[in-house]
Amino acid sequence: MLNKLLKKSFLMILVLISGLFVSTIDAATSETTSIYVHYYRFDNNYTPWDLWVWQSKPKSLEGQAYNFSEDNTDEAYNLGGVVTVIELTGAIADATEFGIIVRKPDWSSKDIDNDRFFSVSETSENGTQHIYLVQGDPLIGYFLNDPDGPSKSPKFTQSFFTKTDEISFKTTEAITAESVTLKKDDVIVEPKSINITDKSGVITLNEPVDFGSKYELFAVFSDDSINNIIVMFDGIYDSADFENAFYYEGDDLGAHVTDTKTTFRLWAPISSAVQLNFYSSGTTVKDGGTTDTPDRVVDMIADVNGTFYYEENNNLHNTYYTYSVTNGQQTFEVVDPYAYSTGVNGKRGLVIDFEQVNPAGFTYDSRANNIINNTDAIIYELQVRDLTTHSSWNGTEANRGRFLGLIEKGTTFNGQKTGFDHILDLGVTHVQLLPFFDFGVVDETKLDDEDYNAFNWGYMPLHFNVPEGSFSSNPYDGLTRVNELKQVTMAYTENNIRLNMDVVYNHTGLSADSNFNQIIPGYYHRKTETSAFYNGSGTGNETASERAMVRKFIIDSVVFWAKEYNISGFRFDLMALHDISTMNELNNALHEIDPTIMVYGEPWMGGSSPLPALQQAGKENLDQMGNVGAFNDDFRDAVKGSVFNREYPGFVNGEFSSQIINRVKYGIVGGVEHEALTLSGLSQSKAWHGDPNKTINYVTAHDNNTLHDKLYLTNEITNQLDKIDEMVMQAYSILLTSQGVMFIHAGDEILRSKPNANGEGFDHNSYQSPDSVNQIRWDQKSLDDNLKVYNHIKGLIALRKNDDSFRLKSAAEINQAISFHYQAIKGLISYQISNDKDVLVIHNANDNVVKLVLPRNAGWDVVVSNEGAGTETIRSYKGGSGIKVAPHESIILYKNNSTENVSSFQSFMNNVNGFTTIDAETPQTSTLWLVILVPLVVLLAVAGWIVFIVIKKKK
Asked: What is the C-alpha to C-alpha distance for residues 656 and 636, in angstroms, rounded to an integer?
C-alpha cells in the first residue's frame, strides 16, 4: 500500500515537473504578441515625451503615437523609467520590423534625430518582447543591460564650438571643472577657463580653433566611469572662419571619369576618416542583392578645404560606390551627394562616363528654338506617370508610367490623340515635369507588384542629381535611367518643346538620416537652439541655403542638369525658404549657359523659418531677384476662387467684389503697376512681380483641386454644375490672353478630375494617391463638353503664339498698350491692347447676356467666343455696332480697318434699343453726358413726331 502511495506521489511529482517544464518550453517559444518599449531619461522628465511607431517591414505603414506610463514591470525587465506597449494586432499583427522616434507630440523635438528600427522576434518569453532606449543614446537594447544596447552611465550629451575660442557642453549630471579634460589631436590642452553651471559648461581656449585638428572632451563621472565626446563645429558653421577654412570652390566634387582616370572627392570637413567602397552591383541584400560586402575598400586622403580625395588610373565607368564616413565614434556608409546615378532604391552611387551612356544623336546645349523672352512660354505641368497609366492611353504596356511613355507617338482613343501626341497637338512651348530626381519614397523593387502603389509626386528628395528609378524601365541598372531621360529631352527638343524641371532643394527627404547630415551633422540644415531641425518646409527639415557649401551644392546641381540633360527651366518648390543671394547666383550661372533658361518658384514656404525675412526669396523680395519669376496666387484665386474653401468663388463663378476684379486685372497686366489697379488690394499691397517675365499666371497646379473639381465644389452650392465647361473655357480665356508667363496644369484642357479613391468627393492632395486618382483619363477627351473645352484652349494657345500683343516684354510696353473699358458693368472685365494690332478682349462672367457698343473708327473681327477659338475670323462687326456677349463668355476681337462703321443713327438706335451705352473709346466720365443726352434726344424725337402729325392733320 505504501509502495503504491509512493508510486502515485512520484508520478504526480513527475507530472508537475513535466508540466512546469512544458510550460517553460511553451513560454520560451510563444509567438510574440506584445512589445514592451522601456525608456529612461537622465533628467527624469517624461512630460510630454511619447513614442512614434510605424511598421517598416514587411511593408511600411502609417505610424501612430504611444504614450508612456510609469514602468512597473518586474525588476528583471525594468529600466527604471517609463514603458509603453505595442500590441501586435490588426494591421500590424504580422510586423517583422518597426521604426521608432522618441519625440514631443508637436514634433518640436526628438530625443534622437535619426529614425531607428528594431526587429520583432518571432518568439519571446510569454509572447512578450522587451526593447530598451536611453536618452541621447542611439543604440537599442534587446534585453536589460544588453552590452550592445544603450548605457545608463552618466555622459556628455552635447559638445560644440559656439565661438572660435569657446566650447559649450552638456552632461547628464553635474560635474566639476577638475574632472574635465580637453584634448587636441589626442594631446591634452590647458584651456583658459572652464565654467560649469549644473549640467552645462563653457570652455574658453587660449587660442582660436584650429579647423584642421580634432578636439575631444573627457570627464570622470560620479560612478568613476570616463566618458568622452568629439567637439563638433555646429555652433560656428556660419562663421567667416569656418567658411574661410573649408569652402571648396572646385568643380570636381563627386566621381569624375576620363578615358584613363577616375577621381573621387567628398567634402567632409569634420570627419576623421573616409573610406571609399567599390561594388560590382548597385543592389543591397535588403533589395534582393547577393552581398553587402564591398569588392574592395580604399582609404581616401584628407585634402584641401575639408575634402577627401582618391584617384585611380582606370576608367571606372559603371562601378557602384559608397563612402564610409567617420565622425567621432560613429561611422556611416553614405551615398555621394554628388552621385549622378545609383542602383535600385538609391543605396549605392554609380560612376558614369556619360559619353558611353548617351543615346544616339544626343547633342549637348541643344534646346527648342521657341522662346526669346519668358513671356513667350506656355508651360504644361505634368507628372511622369499621369500621362500614360490609364488604359485609354493605348501605348506600349512596358512604357506605362515610365520616362519612355512620355515620348511614345501614335497613341489614340476614340479617334483622339493621347499622351505625347496630345501635348504636341495642344501647342505648348514647355513641359514642366514634377520632380524626376531620385525621390526615394517609392520602393523600386515593387514596380511589378499590381497591389503596390508606385505613385508619388516626388517632393521628398533622396539624390538630387540622379533620375528617379521608378520611371526607368530597369531601376536596378543605374545607366538605364540616365539614357532614357536623355531620350525624353531629345524627343521634346526635336518636336520644338522645352523641358522644365520641378526641383526641391528647400529640404531633404530624410533629416538626421540623410546623407548630408551623416557626412557633416547639422551643416546642411537649419537647427534650433536645442539642435532640433527647423521645419519651414512642413516635411521635417529645411536646408540652410545661406551657407556657402549648401549654396554651392544647389548651384552645382542646377548647372549639372542644365548642361548634362539640356534642361530649359527650373521651378523651385517653396522658394521663400531659399535666400536671395542663392537664387540670384544660380540664376546668373544658368544664364551664362543659356539666357533663355527659366528660373521661377513658389514665393512662399510651408511653415516658419529662422531665415530672416529680408533674406527670403519670397513675394516681398522678388524685386531683388533679377529675372527670377514667381507664381501669381493673387490671380489664381481671383479667377476661380479660393483653393482652400469650396464656398469661395472667383470671377468666373460669380464673385465680382472690387478685390476680385482688381486681382484678375493684376494678372491681366502681367503683375506690373497699372493705372487700373488698386495696389493696396493686392497681397503685398504692391505690384510685387514688377515684370511680366517674372509673373507666372495660372489657375491651377498639381496642388489643391483641379479646375474642374474646384468649380464643381463651388457650383454645387449655387446649383450651376451645368456651367462648368463654360467657366473652364472662360478661365483659360482670361489666362491665355493675359500678359506674363502662362502655366497650365495637365488635363485641365479636357476637364480633368481627381475623384477620391473611396469614390466620395475629390482628392485635393493626391501626392501619394494611386494612379486611379491621378492619371489623365483619355477616354474622357472625346466627350462633347471635354472636346469642346480642349479645342477652345488649343485655339487660345495658337492665338497667343501667333500674336505678340499677348506677350509684351516690359511694364512700359504694357502700360502704353493696355487700357480697360466698360468698367461700370458688373461682372464684366474688358480691355484693349493697342500694339501693332488693336485687340479687344471682353470677359462676361454674368449669368445674363451683356449688350455692348463696339468702338468706332473701324470694324471688328471675332476670333474667340463660345463658338470657337483660334486665329480665324468667326464673324465680323462694323465699328460702333452692338454686340451681345453671352453669359460666361469671353470674346476676343481684332480691329479691321477695311470694315466700315455703322451709321451714327444706327449706332444711336442700338443704344436706345437696350445696348449698354458705355463705349470702349469713350472715357468713363462721358457716361453722365450719355445719360442726359439720350433721353433729351428721345424727347425731341417724340416731340418732332407729334408736331409732324399735328401739321399733317391740319393740312
From this structure: 15
368: left (phi over 0), alpha (psi -120 to 50) or beta: beta
CA–CA distances in Å: residue 428 to residues 374, 433, 530, 791: 13, 13, 49, 13
Please give the helix or strand (H or E) that residue 492 lies within, else none: helix 478-494
Q: How far apart are CA 125 and CA 348, in angstroms?
A: 39
Query: Phi, psi at residue 645, to the nearest 5°?
Result: -130, 120
Kindly report the pTM of this predicted structure: 0.88
For residues 794 and 427, the answer to whether their CB atoms sit within 8 Å is yes
Question: Cβ neighbours of residue 269 under 8 Å, at least 6 residues apart?
Answer: 211, 233, 245, 246, 305, 306, 307, 520
Q: Distance between CA 920 and CA 819 in Å, rounded? A: 9
DSSP per residue over 344-379, as a string? GGG-SEE---GGGTSPTT--TT---S--SSGGG-EE
The span from the CA of 510 to the CA of 540, in Å, is 8
- In whole angstroms, give the CA distance from residue 632 to residue 689: 8
34-40 and 128-134: which strand pairing? parallel
Rounded distance, CA 746 to CA 754, Å?
A: 12
Q: What is the pLDDT of residues 446-488, one digit of tens each?
A: 999 999 999 999 999 999 999 999 999 999 999 999 999 999 9
CB 682 within 8 A of CB 651: no
Strand order of the β-sheet with 156-163 is 156-163, 166-171, 200-204, 193-197
Q: What is the pLDDT of residues 597-616, one digit of tens each?
A: 999 999 999 999 999 999 99
- Which long-range contacts does 6-15 make (Cβ < 8 Å, 24+ apart)? none
Q: Is 624 exposed, middle or buried (0-12, 13-18, 19+ CB in 10 A)?
A: middle
Alpha carbons 101 and 30: distance in angstroms, whole number: 28
E strand or H helix at 465:
strand 463-467
Contact present, 779 and 786 (Cβ < 8 Å): no
| Active site positions, annotated | 573, 602
> What is the share, in percent, of the chain residues with pLDDT greater than 90?
85
Mean pLDDT of the residues in the chain = 92
Residue 358 gets the label, from left (phi > 0), alpha (psi -120 to 50) or beta, of beta
For residue 253, give Cα distances in angstroms to 265, 383, 543, 549.
5, 31, 19, 11
| CB within 8 Å of 711: residues ≥ 6 apart | 640, 652, 653, 724, 727, 728
C-alpha cell at 679: 495696389
Query: Average pLDDT for residues 861-867, to the nearest whole number?
Result: 97
